[in-house]
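RETRY 2/3 - previous attempt timed out on the joint model. Re-submitting the same 848-residue input unchanged.
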Amino acid sequence: MEPSNLTASEAARAIASGELTSEALLQSCLEQIYKLDKEVKAFAHVADVSALETARKLDQLSSKGALHGIPFAAKDIIDSHDMPTSYGSAIYANAQPVTDASCIALARRSGGVLLGKTVTTEFANLTPNETRNPIDTNRTPGGSSSGSAAAVAAGMVPVAFGTQTTQSTIRPAAFCGVHGYNPTTGHFRMSGVREAAGTFDRLGLITRSLEDIQLVRDLLLLRPANTFKISPKPPRIAFCRSHLWNEVDGFYRSEIETAIKQLRIAGASVKEIELPSEFKSLPEAHRWISSFEFARNFAFEIDVHWEKISPQLREGRIADGLSCTPERYFESLAFMRSAMTMIPALFDETDVIVTASTLSSAPIGIEATGSAAIGSIWTPLHLPCVTLPVFKTPEGLPLGLQVLGPLHGDDKLLPNAAWIEHSL
Amino acid sequence: MEPSNLTASEAARAIASGELTSEALLQSCLEQIYKLDKEVKAFAHVADVSALETARKLDQLSSKGALHGIPFAAKDIIDSHDMPTSYGSAIYANAQPVTDASCIALARRSGGVLLGKTVTTEFANLTPNETRNPIDTNRTPGGSSSGSAAAVAAGMVPVAFGTQTTQSTIRPAAFCGVHGYNPTTGHFRMSGVREAAGTFDRLGLITRSLEDIQLVRDLLLLRPANTFKISPKPPRIAFCRSHLWNEVDGFYRSEIETAIKQLRIAGASVKEIELPSEFKSLPEAHRWISSFEFARNFAFEIDVHWEKISPQLREGRIADGLSCTPERYFESLAFMRSAMTMIPALFDETDVIVTASTLSSAPIGIEATGSAAIGSIWTPLHLPCVTLPVFKTPEGLPLGLQVLGPLHGDDKLLPNAAWIEHSL
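RETRY 2/3 succeeded.
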């Protein structure tokens, strides 16, 4: 097996045991980039020379930490002190931040090698840049963490940081057939990550395994790496179709229904739940909160660089945000908080909620990143979530299964999701 | 009256009517800076040349907005694209960000003239830089928004942005005898403001009047400026001594008790409330949450610039944060949210809570910024708050009265606080 196909955890074990060097792993990842990235365009910046130097140095050292010698990438709205950060916008072509974002510094502290910055949509909003889905390059990789998902799926890097404000980690991970994870909102620090809409913005992880999610989660929380274990007992599952079920692609719906049966057969207790009727207003609250915040966060760009902002962003999120009164914004925030008080009832005798990750597989074309509708229900609840790449369409396109845990329940969510993944 | 002594609202009216030019106002502010700032050291950077140019240009234009021609300053952890931002740390001496923070861009959009960056404690934590209290230069101005409060109090600028993670706006404003305000946590965007502890960080305003707070609040929310009015009817007041009452200076306690009597006489209904006993744990939750987040946010500085971090910060907040397990952090977050569910009961038939702003007037010495204890109760509740400069010690040192409103109740809090200020 090519080193570039290993998960971060597998590669870390191989490096620790002396079977693999960081340099060889990095070379293998770079080969994938040189081979594929002219077409996929996952990377906005590849720091091949400095990353190789770092890898060679790490090969001379005893282990610095859980990510020792492992290449990683970061979405290009995450600052790095030694390579440019462009936020997906021509305004900031080659802009050089003065610091490393918290997540980059912590990954480096654990021995990780920052290989480059991955393409983001414009300011992590809807307007895509030129990344293609490596599974089918006629299709979008999803967004806004387009390059992070494409790079992990294409074997260019085992782990990449993304972010999510609506569905910007779950959607591209699902479209590209990899694992995506967002923690309970607030668990991971956002220092050095450009704010889109602070109420919702979360750092997300894109990996090739749940074990890798746990690995990176542990280092971001600054705690010792835990050996990852599948939950020894089947989780209590609540299957939630949500009010968007009729918008989910038919084949995908039947795959999910079949998976639910398999999980029951494998020993899980599964009940079906409906969301409180109030939750139908969550997408609207999400829209007003995120648009209101976005339109104010980008005041400098709007005033000084208006002509460099895409028409889609101007006429979409920004116009939306400018049309939202403060009163509507405050009401939306209060509504979101009241909806969150209903979360404990959702998880009554329930360990995880299982639902669709997206409405469909990756659509054809790269001029849009696909629907984020499912995220607009779950993101305002602040729940931790993963997407598992467990389905494929007859054409071979990936589809994910989304698994959500209760607030602060991330450390149980991951082993429970592993049980589900293992049983499918 | 010197133009430098006007409030922003007064100056804006004088400029609009042609009685004053932006250039004359700026010159008057600069004179104060040239005269006093060698000793007070409120400013980390004064952009006198470019600010004068901007003021002259604005004098040629019809009004751009509510802050047309008015100088303002921003705490030096708030990014500006055209002047350095040092975050109060030698690590970033003369560092140049690529963008304007949302608050700076929005103030400029309204015609405000960024006059400079005001001194912050190191990364908006406890270690002071060299600012002195302009009321008595042997004393601290408080922190972490030290320079913002000192500059407004010394007539160097009518309005300055600060931030608050514990009590970093209320305390310096109270110590320097000016108005300080923090909105409901989340109302003002933090894009371009260096994160200290994202759960608590809020942009704060330091001004010479409540009217100015409303003026700047409106422009940050991107809504038309409202004519500021004192509440036509007396507010229903809950007087809360809190469990810290015995730590409040005796003279200050008696001033507050007297003020409560005056407010009753002026027609306000005043009841006394005790905080729920659970709230005694809020300061500890605040400590763990803020320290946990801080220690992870500054991973880059810890790893790359350790020797340039003050011993106080290393051994204080950072050590504290590194000793906090993720489990304790999650529990503290959950506890904070459960405490917040008790807020509606606190405001039952109550418009505002009145309490002390600080434990005392500004202590002697500039090697510390004074106790932030009172903030560690109120900040975790996310409530909007103002401090009113309504008391003075026999030595002439300012003391504030803190007035808090319910979540999202900012627009009523300000007129109610004005009623209180007017009645004292």
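The first strand of chain A starts at residue 43 and ends at 46. Closing ticket.
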